[in-house]
Amino acid sequence: MKGESKKYLHVGQAGDLSGWDYVLYRLFEMLPGALAWGTLILMFLLSWKKPIWIAIFIITFDLYWLVKTVFLSFHMKASWRRMQHNLEIDWMARLELLKWNRVWQLVIIPTASGAEDVVTDTIDSIIACKWPKERMILVVAQEERVMGSHVLGEKIAEKYKDIFGELLFTYHPDGVGGELRGKGSNETYALKEVLSKIKAKEIPFEDVIVSSFDEDTRMYDQYFSCLTWNFLTAEKPHRSSFQPVPLYHNNVWEAGSVSRVVASSGTFWQMMQQERPERLTTFSSHSMGLVGLVEANFWQKNIVSEDSRIFWNHYFYFNGDWRTIPLSYPVSLDANLASGFWQTAKNIYKQQRRWGWGVENVPYMLFHFVKNKHVSLRKKLYYTFNALEGFWSWATNALLIFMLGWLPLVLGGREFTKHVISYNLPLITRLIMTLAMIGIVTSAVIAQQMLKKTKGDYRSQRKMPLILQWILMPLTMIIFGAIPGIEAQTRLMLGGRFRLGFWLTPKDRVKS
Question: Which of 375, 268, 388 has its CA nearest to residue 330?
Fold first, then answer.
């Protein structure tokens, strides 16, 4: 990236700009919400004024959804087969054919919860990995404002001394100008702090892979071996991110049915994206080379969704020469769990709304497409369509499928009931939606297979309840999908005090 466009690299919102740049960015912030609300409002108005039009639209949309469901189900099955295969590969044996022993793993665990058991479980899973710990730099990145953070650091230092090549602790100061309280500012501070250690060890930046993990991320035993193999065999390792599949299996038996279904739905979406690497971006825990991170000035510090924004930071810094390589290998995280059902449901909603706030990347992407003349028009149109269609679907599709099919019957009046389509509409939509249940069945079957493969304490008597819980999927798609999605887009559209800050998901591992 050169010249004028480079100064926009870490723009967080329209308020960071002025003049016509502010107007343009603000219009892009309003676009996703306007599309979602425009669709829903138009559905109501046309159901009243043009019910036959809407009836035809509903049937057409349901057919589209059926085709899309089948298409994505094939992707999900293919992704599961690939992940299952990768779990069985001896990645260290593969590495023996490459010059791998020059590689260092730099692992950053940003934490703000102060939960010792959560952090130590993550560190224990790293130790259990088949990777030489003397070639690993582990950084526990804490927040200075969290009470007891230094005490926690001392406990971890004592427990894990002399295990890693370096075990380091950083304490991100509070109230730094231009920063938002969140993961991005913490891990950026941490990485800048430890660069001197890397230089002191005379480790070339080209040999360092940086992994940013959520504090509850647990590794499967060959994660770093698989990551290193992909890094060393990539065509452009220093122009690539590396994305594992997030499974929410840490506390899967303690979490309730709603929490499991919502968490699994997120996993399945990431699995399907792994089969479409041309549109895959980073999410949650991810890895990349140190060289690119330093060049693009680390994670963005003034936004909530730094895990996906880091992809776009690099994409525009390197003028479109950046991609995300799917690892098709899992990491495991916590599903939402609180001390009671309603608090768990509240936490699930807030987490989904925070993920939905990833829509803040849409105006960033569109603004840079206008400013950056080095990215091809084809790529701009491709990413624009996928981003807008993706967030529009998130906010509207479940409502269109499960709730709005009856609108023409209710609002269309007597005139509509005279037409044959008024009698056939419920029958046709019911038939199409029944066929579309293939997606739910596929999800239930793959969820079972993943638990058998990745959870050592899986028991057959859990099989039937785990299958039956997927009956909740239509409800969860609306309450914990469409509604938090459209809330996030509405907040971005309104801007100002409606913007979301970073919400840290509580890590409660007691039974609800």
Answer: 268
Helix (H, G, I), strand (E, B) or coil at 325: strand
What DSSP letter does each residue of 285-300 carry, written as one string?
Answer: SEEEEHHHHHHTTSS-
Contact 285/213 with Cβ under 8 angstroms?
A: yes
Q: How far apart are CA 184 and CA 63, in angstroms?
A: 41
Q: Write the secondary structure of 155-181 as one string of H (helix), E (strand) and C (coil).
A: HHHHHCCCCCCEEEEEEECCCCCCCCC
Which tens digits make up the pLDDT trace of 429-458? 777 777 777 778 888 888 888 888 888 887
CB atoms within 10 A of CB 176: 12
- Secondary structure (3-state) at 245: strand
Amino acid at position 192, single letter: K
- Report the candidate in 350, 309, 121, 289 with the shortest Cα–Cα distance to residue 215: 121
The encoded tokens of residue 503 equal 């919400």
Q: In terms of residues, how long is the chain?
A: 512
Answer whether residue 247 shows pLDDT above 50: yes
Per-residue model confidence as pLDDT tens digits over 328-355: 999 999 999 888 889 999 999 999 999 9
Secondary structure percentages of the chain, helix, strand, coil, to 5 = 65, 10, 25
Q: Is 148 left (phi over 0), alpha (psi -120 to 50) or beta?
A: left
What are 341-345's contacts with CB under 8 Å, separation 24+? 341/256, 341/512, 343/512, 344/255, 344/256, 344/258, 344/259, 344/512, 345/258
DSSP state of 323: E
* Alpha helix (H) residue ranges in 223-360: 223-233, 257-274, 290-295, 306-317, 341-356
245, 225, 320, 231: which is closest to 285 by C-alpha? 245
Cβ atoms < 10 Å from Cβ of 364 = 25
Long-range contacts of 410-417 (CB under 8 A, 24+ apart): 410/47, 411/44, 411/47, 411/48, 411/51, 412/47, 412/48, 412/51, 412/52, 412/55, 413/48, 413/51, 415/51, 416/51, 416/52, 416/55
d(CA 172, CA 179): 11
CATH class of 93-341: alpha beta
Nearest alpha-carbon partner for 106 in 213, 183, 182 = 213
Q: Where are the domains of the chain?
A: 93-341
Residue 463 CB: number of other CB atoms within 10 A? 13
- Alpha helices, DSSP H, located in 412-437: 413-417, 420-436
- Residues 101-117 have a mean pLDDT of 93
